Amino acid sequence: VRLNRYLAACGVCSRRAADAFIVAGRVRVDGRIVRELGRQVSDGARVEFDHVAIQPPRGKTYLVLHKPFGVVTTMRDPQGRPTVRDLLPRGAPRVVPVGRLDYDTSGVLLLTDDGDLANHLLHPRYGVEKTYRALIDGRLTEGDRHALRCGMDLGDCRTQPARIRVLQARGDRSLVELTVREGKRRQVRRMFAALGHCVRRLERVRFGPILLDELEPGKTRSLSKRELESLRRIGSERGIRRHFSNPTPLR
Ligand code: URA
Questions:
Q1: Exposure check for the chain: N or C terminus, fewer CB within 10 A?
Q2: d(Cα 214, Cα 211) in Å, to the nearest integer?
Q3: 102 given a catalytic annotation
Q4: How do residues 142-186 score in pLDDT, each as one tens digit?
Q5: Which segments of the chain does DSSP mark as H helices, in order?
Q6: Could you tell me the CA-to-CA distances from 192 to 32, 69, 177, 233, 240 in Å, in that order?
Q7: Which residue, judged by its Cα, is nearest atom 4 of ligand 1?
């Protein structure tokens, strides 16, 4: 990292001010004054400003939790129910959930202390895809599928087109996968209820590039580098252009 960027990342000053401080000889790296503006700082270097050691910036934390049923997606619950905080590793930084899952929904939940990324991912403009696996009463008709795919009126709002896949239909129950790009209150349950299908079990199996996979209920893992890069791309300008100039049809 360039020295001016490093100082800015540590919260010492802006990059421009850092350049002035460097030229003025107020910054030392490993005990030596550095006046060279392009100077790179490697991991573990000891950087001082006016003889005070600078604390290296702490990286952000990105955790994936398999939220079980019967847990609220908040850090505190006035009613004393189990919260997602109870499931975080001991000593974890102060992360917050990115969006929410209902008390009676299980599945992938991202938690982070990176507020910028969280805000981006929750912004409707980015339309992060979420896939839910739902066990519903009855079987979907062609009309039901059409309604889910085209968007439906839920009374207080209209849903955007969704993708639907029937995984199993046995007896009077069906297991289906629904992919949506919104996060309206109890959206999936309300969509199926509007078609006369009660949801018996609901699990989110994907949030953007993050898959639930083998993660056990109640367990957390760190986001992989690849997943983080994909999430950042969603939240970047490139992500917006890709989404809007070439939208993937949700069919
Ligand atoms: N839709 C729902 O109905 N519930 C959730 O928790 C998430 C999506």
A1: C
A2: 9
A3: yes
A4: 999 999 999 999 999 999 999 999 999 999 999 999 999 999 999
A5: 3-9, 15-23, 115-122, 142-150, 187-194, 225-234, 237-245
A6: 67, 19, 12, 32, 30
A7: 186
